[in-house]
Amino acid sequence: MHKKPIIIGVAGGSGSGKTTVAKEVYRQFPEQSILMIEQDAYYKDQAHLPMEERLKTNYDHPLAFDNDLLIRHLQKLSEGKSVEKPVYDYPNHTRAEEVIPVEPRDVIILEGIMILEDDRLRDMMDIKLFVDTDSDMRIIRRLLRDINERGRTIDSVIDQYTSVVRPMHLQFIEPTKRYADIIVPEGGHNHVAIDLMVTKIKTILESKAML
Ligand SMILES: Nc1ncnc2c1ncn2[C@@H]1O[C@H](COP(=O)(O)OP(=O)(O)O)[C@@H](O)[C@H]1O
Ligand SMILES: Nc1ccn([C@@H]2O[C@H](COP(=O)(O)O)[C@@H](O)[C@H]2O)c(=O)n1
């Protein structure tokens, strides 16, 4: 009989180490039992907009995400059905043409800046984490990552951070910390927190197997 998956939410500011934490947890399970979904993959499609319009979008506002599609996909996976996960193209600020076929799994890790902001998503999660990293560390990490991996310049990262990312973080992300079951300081290399998470997920999986 099909069992509903365990959904683990990993939230936190940009550059906090969410992806690193999520990947560390992911690595502790056999590939056929776990999958990762990034909320970034569900940024709204902007293929119909010219580049100059895409550059004006506020990517740190809840309305930038297609949470309806994300929720539909999580529901389908919970029903044991597969989905086609979108792929996000950061340099072009829109969805890529390809999609990734995703099969249902026992554990789903949902990672993203705004996943605790939407109560419909919160209600679907079994465990909620907030990765809490000081803003100076987050901007340094983001600078390096966005230049090396997302096709950005130093000036564009600094300008976006001061005008949009920082104020939106204070308005929409930081307040969602209150919904977390666990707050993980510093993120990716916090092995104690990661081991605790892995143990907890295994305990839930074992108790589900007994039902
Ligand atoms: N604890 C850490 N110490 C140093 N660098 C880290 C740590 N956690 C993550 N990083 C690095 O910081 C960058 C951003 O981390 P990432 O996990 O992608 O953050 P997020 O998903 O929250 O934006 C990556 O290059 C990652 O390797
Ligand atoms: N076209 C885009 C889309 C998103 N961003 C930024 O990504 C950040 C979220 O991703 P993390 O991996 O850092 O959590 C978010 O703060 C957006 O500003 C972008 O720059 N361009």
Poorly predicted regions are: none
Number of helices: 7
Which class of secondary structure composition applies to the elements? alpha/beta
The gyration radius over C-alpha positions equals 17 Å
The CATH topology corresponds to: Rossmann fold
- Number of E-state strands: 7
Order of helices and strands: EHEHHEEEHEHHEH
Choose one word for the global shape: globular
Query: What is the CATH homologous superfamily assignment?
Result: P-loop containing nucleotide triphosphate hydrolases
Mean pLDDT rating: 94
* Largest sheet: spatial strand order: 2-5-1-6-7
Oligomerization status of the protein chains:
single chain
What is the C-level CATH assignment?
Alpha Beta
Cofactors, ions, other ligands: adenosine-5'-diphosphate, the ligand Nc1ccn([C@@H]2O[C@H](COP(=O)(O)O)[C@@H](O)[C@H]2O)c(=O)n1
The profile of the biggest β sheet is: 5 strands, parallel
What is the number of domains?
A: 1
